[in-house]
């Protein structure tokens, strides 16, 4: 039995027999489907489970063969953003699966299937890490143990159901003192008690041993590869492998993709030694084909390597293992849709001759006896999520980027500013800049850097090294006033509400996210009395010190990464999107009543980097730390408010800033590229800078883009013509 999801959040359970599809169940799920698995439990040959992660809570649904109903379990609101589900055995000797592992963005729980349709929480009886997201979890080959892979650790724990709380029996954790916190895993696989975990530039391989009841986790090998490696797959060779079958205990083929190349390694493990051989490099005939996901599978005709492309294509390669080498040959290339292809994990169906591709269109790929591949469309899927995270959220430094060969040239002309502004930017990185054209003001919201990459910042040149809001007059290029925020606060994002003078600032105070709203007074102090002041924001003056309206930290347990204003409801009342961790909140703010009402909450599978709303078209652009970009329509009516997905682009490029202007979406990444995307055709062009951008703003008078860079400069770039598609940059 196989599961599939549709754009209307419907679930189909169907069987694939003799080239025909028989629909078994059809159910409507409350929100978007994120993961699906099939397994066998006691009394049932096929259990199909589906995880829904968006919305106010996560939902796990259970389908069973010959039972035309779906048993649903809804989590508390603290468990949002389901990222994966796994079926496990309670004891190694069990023939059926009875444990359900559910991973969320910030936690993991374990459930036991009781009877035909009941779930029992047994998390406390295992030693799994409950406070982290799970990348992979499986039973060990010997003994009643579980292997859990988290972004920064690998653990082995034992079941003690019905007795005392479980404990961790073996634990490998990255050394935080050596900067390992920046090198978290973002995908993993567990095969034959071996953990394969992908991080920046490496696939790390762990051996999980349970010799004589004493588990251990050993980092055995590291496969070095370019940092742009986007995906990998592992194929087990069995308990012996060449060149000496009597010597080697385990053998694997590891495949990794970067650019248009597919590299394969032979990996062998012995009790006394380990061996890695790079055996083959296969160059795809189409150099424009970018791999989104890859998966090994085996059928009656041998080993196959499926490559899901970002352009909707699906390529199948034949992999033949010989005595001392591996050969690769292309077998098929089919179109699975127009959106990036996601391939099912092997635990999704139990089928050997078929691949279930999850993309804009879900299809079954079948190989016939004469070696012909056919693709059978089954259903459509509305959402697309890429499975990898590449962000150090504390410092907004990006890793694992792929160099794109689509630059349209460099357009960087210096903006003439006074030495006074340049000196300020040398002291503190201008994280956010905003332009008020009617007042002729440039607003700079800054925050001291803390990373080694920003070591050029001089804390001694700025009082207490505190963040601040400064307003400059562009006509006379002079500082109008400066408002210093509390020392120790870290500015993470900022937005200006039109020309009303309200500034919304996202702050990180220790580990808590906070939103602070400030008001710039309409009248400034007399020009002759202007001084470079440094006054607390709470201190009011007849001059121009900004007034703190109110602040709110309720509902933001995670760092606030992005804020974007949607529209103005009434005078002093507006709606804003706030991205905190992996959650996106639509909030109605009333500055008169000093209140915040949460209207909508959506949860992603990874932290959100940037959010921007086009007030005219109501298009919402969201970029996450898994790479790529999603564009939604914000639909509002008297009944409800929802996000309807319009376009999705999968990429390893991380967009850190987003901005809408005249039908174009403008984004920047930390490689030094500015991306222009047309909202109608979604065509894209790229401009290369000589520096790393920090903030974006539109200068209406000259119809240009202002970019502040990490070195303290401000760059001006010409904008595309709104009437034309983005195939060139003016």
How are the SSEs ordered, and which strands pair?
Elements: E1 2-5, E2 10-17, E3 20-28, E4 33-41, E5 44-52, E6 59-64, E7 67-74, E8 82-88, E9 99-104, E10 108-114, E11 118-121, E12 136-139, E13 145-150, E14 153-158, E15 168-173, E16 187-191, E17 194-199, E18 202-211, E19 214-224, E20 231-238, E21 250-258, E22 261-269, E23 274-283, E24 291-299, E25 302-309, E26 313-321, E27 326-335, E28 342-343, E29 354-358, E30 361-367, E31 373-380, E32 391-392, E33 397-398, E34 413-414, H1 419-427, E35 432-436, E36 441-446, E37 468-473, E38 478-484, E39 490-496, E40 502-509, E41 512-519, E42 535-536, E43 547-552, E44 560-570, E45 573-580, E46 583-590, E47 595-603, E48 608-614, E49 619-624, E50 629-636, E51 641-649, E52 657-661, E53 664-668, E54 673-678, E55 684-688, E56 693-699, E57 704-709, E58 714-718
Parallel strand pairs: 38-42
Antiparallel strand pairs: 1-2, 2-3, 4-5, 5-6, 6-7, 8-9, 9-10, 10-11, 12-13, 13-14, 14-15, 16-17, 17-18, 18-19, 20-21, 21-22, 22-23, 24-25, 25-26, 26-27, 28-29, 29-30, 30-31, 32-33, 34-58, 35-36, 36-37, 37-38, 39-40, 40-41, 41-43, 44-45, 45-46, 46-47, 48-49, 49-50, 50-51, 52-53, 53-54, 54-55, ...
Pfam family, one: Beta-prop_RSE1_2nd
Protein name: RSE1/DDB1/CPSF1 second beta-propeller domain-containing protein
Organism: Paramicrosporidium saccamoebae
């Amino acid at each position: 039995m196989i599961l599939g999801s549709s754009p209307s959040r419907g679930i189909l359970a169907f069987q694939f027999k003799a080239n025909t599809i028989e629909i078994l169940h059809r159910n409507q799920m409350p929100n978007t489907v994120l993961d699906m698995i099939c397994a066998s439990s006691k009394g049932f040959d096929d259990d199909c489970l589906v995880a829904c992660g968006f919305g106010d809570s996560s939902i796990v649904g259970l389908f069973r063969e010959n039972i035309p109903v779906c048993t649903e379990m809804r989590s508390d609101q603290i468990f949002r953003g389901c990222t994966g589900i796994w079926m496990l055995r309670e004891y190694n000797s069990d023939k059926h699966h009875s444990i359900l592992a559910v991973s969320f963005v910030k936690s993991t729980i374990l459930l036991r299937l009781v009877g035909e349709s009941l779930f029992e929480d047994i998390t406390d009886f295992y030693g799994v890490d409950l406070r982290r997201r799970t990348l992979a979890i499986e039973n060990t080959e010997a003994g009643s143990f579980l292997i859990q892979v988290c972004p920064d650790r690998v653990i082995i724990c034992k079941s003690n159901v019905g007795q005392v709380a479980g404990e961790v029996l073996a634990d490998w954790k990255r050394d935080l003192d050596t900067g390992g916190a920046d090198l978290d895993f973002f995908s993993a696989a567990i095969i034959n008690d071996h953990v394969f975990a992908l991080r920046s530039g490496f696939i790390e391989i762990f051996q999980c041993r349970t010799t004589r009841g004493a588990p251990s986790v050993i980092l055995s090998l590291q496969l070095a590869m370019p940092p742009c490696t986007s995906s990998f797959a592992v194929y087990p060779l069995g308990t012996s492998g060449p060149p000496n079958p009597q010597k080697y205990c385990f053998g694997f083929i590891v495949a990794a993709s970067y650019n248009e190349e597919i590299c394969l390694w032979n990996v062998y493990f012995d009790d006394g030694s380990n061996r890695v051989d790079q055996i083959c490099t296969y160059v795809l005939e189409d150099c424009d084909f970018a791999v989104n996901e890859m998966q090994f599978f085996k059928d009656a005709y041998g080993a196959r390597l499926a490559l899901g492309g970002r352009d909707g294509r699906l390529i199948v390669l034949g992999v033949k293992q010989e005595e001392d080498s591996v050969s690769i040959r292309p077998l098929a290339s089919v179109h699975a849709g127009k959106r990036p292809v996601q391939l099912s994990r092997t635990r999704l169906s139990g089928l050997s001759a078929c691949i279930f591709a999850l993309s804009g269109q879900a299809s079954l790929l079948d190989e016939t006896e004469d070696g012909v591949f056919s693709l059978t469309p089954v259903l459509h899927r509305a959402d697309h999520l890429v499975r990898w995270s590449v962000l150090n959220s504390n410092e907004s430094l990006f890793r694992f980027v792929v160099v794109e060969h689509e630059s349209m040239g460099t357009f960087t002309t210096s903006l003439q500013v006074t030495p006074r502004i340049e000196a300020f930017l040398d002291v503190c990185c201008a994280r956010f800049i905003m332009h008020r054209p009617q007042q002729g003001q440039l607003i700079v919201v800054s925050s001291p850097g803390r990373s080694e990459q920003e070591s050029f910042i001089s804390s001694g040149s700025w009082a207490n090294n505190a963040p601040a809001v400064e307003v400059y007059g562009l006509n006379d290029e002079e500082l109008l006033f400066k408002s210093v925020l509390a020392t120790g606060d870290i500015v993470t994002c900022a937005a200006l509400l039109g020309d009303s003078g309200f500034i919304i600032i996202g702050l990180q105070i220790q580990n808590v996210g906070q939103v602070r709203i400030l008001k710039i007074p309409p009248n400034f102090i007399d020009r002759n009395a202007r001084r470079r002041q440094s006054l607390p924001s709470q201190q009011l003056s007849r001059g121009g010190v900004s007034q703190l309206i109110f602040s709110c930290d309720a509902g933001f347990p995670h760092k606030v990464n992005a804020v974007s204003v949607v529209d103005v409801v009434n005078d002093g009342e507006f709606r804003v999107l706030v991205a905190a961790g992996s959650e996106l909140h639509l909030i109605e703010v009333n500055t008169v009543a000093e209140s915040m009402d949460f209207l909508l909450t959506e949860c992603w599978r990874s932290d959100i980097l940037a959010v921007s709303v086009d007030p005219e078209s109501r298009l919402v652009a969201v970029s996450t730390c898994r790479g790529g970009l999603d564009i939604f329509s914000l639909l509002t009516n008297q009944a409800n408010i929802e996000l309807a997905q319009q376009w999705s682009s999968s990429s390893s490029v991380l967009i850190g800033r987003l901005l809408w202007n005249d039908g174009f979406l403008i984004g920047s990444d930390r490689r030094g590229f500015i991306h222009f995307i047309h909202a109608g055709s979604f065509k894209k062009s790229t401009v290369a800078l000589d520096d790393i951008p920090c903030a974006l703003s539109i200068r209406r008078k000259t119809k240009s883009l202002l970019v502040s860079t990490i070195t303290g400069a401000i760059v001006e770039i010409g904008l595309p013509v709104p009437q034309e598609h983005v195939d060139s940059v003016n």
